[in-house]
Design brief:
By secondary structure, the chain is of the alpha/beta class. Helix content is 14%, strand content 28%. It has a domain of 56 residues. It has a three-stranded parallel β-sheet, covered by helices on one side. A two-stranded antiparallel ribbon has the order 4-5. The termini are far apart.
Length: 83
């Protein structure tokens, strides 16, 4: 079971799944806290096996997600307003 914070382009999760399969894993499942409504890159995972939240395609901060190493300790998940 691979647990990821956010599914955005899908490339990171795809690379980790490939690594586990090449290492001999019989089955690889994925869980993400947040699935962002963002176009996946070619070769990226389209969706996780388990998803906590679906969010719009906005920059997300808080609850471990940061902006330049700031704001990761916010007690919730927030979208940044575009100016």
């Amino acid at each position: 079971m691979i647990i990821e914070d956010i599914l955005d382009t899908g490339l990171t999760l795809s690379a980790i799944i490939d690594y586990c399969q090449q290492a001999g894993a019989k089955r690889v499942l994925s869980a993400v806290l947040i699935d962002k409504d963002h176009p996946r890159d070619k070769g990226g995972v389209d969706k996780a096996d388990f998803t906590g939240l679906h969010v719009e395609d906005k920059f997300i901060i808080g609850y471990g997600l940061d902006y330049q190493e700031y704001l990761r300790n916010l007690p919730g998940i927030y979208a940044v307003e575009q100016s």
